[in-house]
Amino acid sequence: MAQSSTTSLFYYSCRNGKLDEVSEQLPKMTLEEIDQVQANGSTALHAACYYNHVEIVKLLLKRGASRSIQNVHKCLPYDEAEKEEIKKLFVRETSNRFNDDGTGHIDWMKCDQAAEELAHEYRFRHAGFGWKKKDIDRRMKCIKEEMSHTDDEKVGRFLTRAELDQNPLYLLKAYTVESNFYKKLNKDLATKHFDQGTNSGIVYFIDFFFNCPDLAKLSFKGKVYRGMLITQDDLKQYGIGGKVMNKAFMSTTRDRNIAEGFARNELIHRATAHGQQVKMAALCAYEIINDRTGLDIEQVSEYVIEREVLVGPYTAFVISNIRKVRSDYVEIDLRECEKVNEEEEFDDED
């Protein structure tokens, strides 16, 4: 975002703790105006955090002020906060970003021959089209038209920037916003009726994720974590050596403690009539070994402190170990399967 040559009255209101003035001005302002980098190199959110104005920070975050803008000192608003009370405001409110969705369905599906073929179709359908000739603008516009209605301007502004600047990093930033955007995308992906031929906006989003050269620098290999609630029956169905696949995008974190916390927070201590725990908290450790399976979006995210690595849909893993630590807690190790060999030759045409 371009830096202003002046400093606004709104910035001074946030800096000086003028809560009434901020409350009055906020509803009349666009997010671009709220996030404007001032002449001194900081945003209003930076100022409110630095000067410990808790209630103003709450208002700015609720309105949708960007959490990911660095100031002239290369600091995020979170970095500038001295009070722990303010730092806690930057933690995502929803509890299932790095946990299953609470519907009772776990993240995985069994990975058989048909599932592997479908995964190959998803991942390599557009791999050979070539990005120089590809109509990126049309694809960006299609994603925006199909997905922007899922939330207000908080998501729309990033989709607009992605389209105008032809910059796919803004697509990932939109995904990290706490909104219905990522929820709808994954819900549509997970449904049995998802069709690559009709859900073109989602298909193009997947296309950018796996194949766009501009995102190659984010490719991540290594260990990541995600929490999950799991039943005894699930454990019997998915044993050591079993192959599983995620059908939707999967948010993971490089910070084990974050994933563990998400899992424990969702745990309901309910036992059967015979005293057996109905559901257990599971900490899943995924080892990613292939290029472009996971993208490290920490520096792109609106929630930098989550250290998120986003794993693409239809990624196959094999369960290498299961450790039942307690009656209500289990740890599961998974390693990504070797990348499917791409034997097909693609034409460089769209």
UniProtKB/TrEMBL annotation:
Assigned keywords, A-Z: ANK repeat, Glycosyltransferase, NAD, NADP, Nucleotidyltransferase, Transferase
A Pfam family the protein falls into: Ank
ANK repeats: from-to residues: 40-72
Stored PROSITE patterns: ANK_REP_REGION, ANK_REPEAT, TR_MART
Highest taxon of the lineage: Eukaryota
Catalytic activity as recorded in UniProt: L-arginyl-[protein] + NAD(+) = N(omega)-(ADP-D-ribosyl)-L-arginyl-[protein] + nicotinamide + H(+)
Entry-linked SUPFAM superfamilies: ADP-ribosylation, Ankyrin repeat
EC annotation from Swiss-Prot or TrEMBL: 2.4.2.31
EC top class, as a word: transferase
UniProt name for this protein: NAD(P)(+)--arginine ADP-ribosyltransferase
Organism this protein belongs to: Rotaria socialis
